[in-house]
């Protein structure tokens, strides 16, 4: 979901995604974790590789990836609302 969130703002190469994810959530993914996620997301058709730029491969969100991200965000909102209600902070 972090990769989808990063690419929702536009195409990025791996290092830029790592920086963006760190800025969003305050912790840095390892390169192996990121590239493992990239492989899985490409296989699902949720992201796609673009032509190389200066020895870096940018990726972008596909239409299916955007729809999946929207659905995951909706699920996350419901989860947060349920958690807040159970904690009595809603």
UniProtKB/TrEMBL annotation:
Transcription regulator PadR N-terminal domain mapped to chain residues: 3-69
Domain of life: Bacteria
InterPro entries xref list: Metal_resp_DNA-bind_regulator (IPR052509), Tscrpt_reg_PadR_N (IPR005149), WH-like_DNA-bd_sf (IPR036388), WH_DNA-bd_sf (IPR036390)
A Pfam family reported for this protein in Swiss-Prot or TrEMBL: PadR
PANTHER family: PADR-FAMILY TRANSCRIPTIONAL REGULATOR
Protein's UniProt name: Helix-turn-helix transcriptional regulator
Source organism of the structure: Phenylobacterium montanum
């Amino acid at each position: 979901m972090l990769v989808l969130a990063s690419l929702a703002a536009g195409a990025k190469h791996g290092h830029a995604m790592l920086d963006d994810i760190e800025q969003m959530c305050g912790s840095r993914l390892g390169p192996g974790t990121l590239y493992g996620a990239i492989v899985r997301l490409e296989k699902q058709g949720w992201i796609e590789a673009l032509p190389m730029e200066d020895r870096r491969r940018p990726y972008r969100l596909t239409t299916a990836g955007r729809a999946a991200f929207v659905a995951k965000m909706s699920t996350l909102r419901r989860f947060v609302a349920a958690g807040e209600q159970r904690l009595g902070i809603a």
